[in-house]
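Let us work through a complete example step by step.
Step 1: write down the sequence.
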Amino acid sequence: MTRPTAAAPSYASVLAHFDLSPYAAPRGRLAASLADMFGARLTGVAAEQALLLYDDGLGAEAERRRVERDLELARQTFLDVAGSRNDLEWRSGFLAPDRHVVEQARAADIVVVGRRASYDQIDPMLGVSPGYVVMECGRPVLVAPPEVDDLSIRAVVVAWKDTREARRAVYDALPLLVRAGEVVVVAATPSFRDEGAEDVAAWLGRHGANSRPLVRAGELSSVAEELLDVADDLRAGLIVSGAYGHSRTREWMFGGVTKDLLETAPVPLLLSH
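Step 2: predict the structure and record it as tokens.
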């Protein structure tokens, strides 16, 4: 009896956040390239919360019109990026941008947001915190560095630690990993073997991925730097990682791999919590 061939994992809906920063257009083009890769719907989202004004109502109306203009500018960026694509949708709202993106993630398989490193230009009105979105949206989040406008999966680095978050990230990234030219599962450990990384590489191989484990052994000053070094050596276009294995408050106060990657990674990050 012939076994049925399993359909390749896929994403059917890509949700991309837009704001008025100079990075919104390249981020949108990256999201569009991801949607094109899977023949997925591309949904653009933006939101802004009107400032509270206590007067006779005229100021409040002017503030509402200002927010409407901002949202229209964000929509125009989305339309410029989308071009002649047909499977499109735009969703905007008068509320906190973080909350809006998290709410709209219910209609998406993967969410694309911008990075917010300390030296990046940010939009204080329409911008979102990638850390908050990762923690709250229940979907894999693709975090785009500034000016990166295409998703390359010629080589992909998977940051492996035997945690729930890392297992979730590998599973969430499976549609990309099975299409990647090479997947390297990197474990930072004092020993020279990591059975978890070997198991994950083998599991990915059973799904058709070209995968192998790699151990960075010994005492490491920075796991994030090791991951970035491997990504640079492979010329990888994507790093997949679990996010906030400790509490998010602890990571932001005392540092952590997630925080360091969000601050310094020059390539997109696919993060899951």
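Step 3: interpret the result. Strands lie at 13-17, 41-47, 88-93, 110-114, 141-144, 155-160, 182-189, 211-217, 238-242, 269-272.
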